[in-house]
Amino acid sequence: MKSNYKTIDELVERVDERNSSGFARLLGVSINKCFIPSVANTIGTDLSKYKVIKKNEFAASLMQVSRDERIPIACLTEYDEAIMSPAYSIFRVKDTKEILPDYLNMWFKRSEFDRECSFIAVGGVRGSMPWEEFARIKVLVPEIDEQKRLVRNYKVISDRIALKQKINDNL
Description:
The protein is built from six helices and ten strands. The chain is α+β, with helices and mostly antiparallel strands.
């Protein structure tokens, strides 16, 4: 299996589309690396300044990374489009022939990735990580067929865990 490491910056491009259409599905990213409906009070808030995120794009909160020892980051799969606070960094994969969004999302869920981010984000009062530091983190990029196989196996295991959880909850 041929594989190599590439920086996040080599694999993704930042997106900064603003909410000019008045779209109102407001999401946030939890510490568990999934999207959640925002609990922010938006009464009187100008939502045109909020960022648009589209399907298969990522959102990351680079604030308080070292404090939480996890980086809230997720790939949008449930909706075609939503809006997010301007505090989030939004980005997408440059070339899906090089790396799959699902594979990159799996990489971001690794505890080793969180540990590396926590180590890097030691400066400042809040332990934030600048985009430039985040973009220098390296990701293992195997051949695309290997990525597909890993994603497929991960999905099977994740689905089984979810099913077992439902069974346990019913007991």
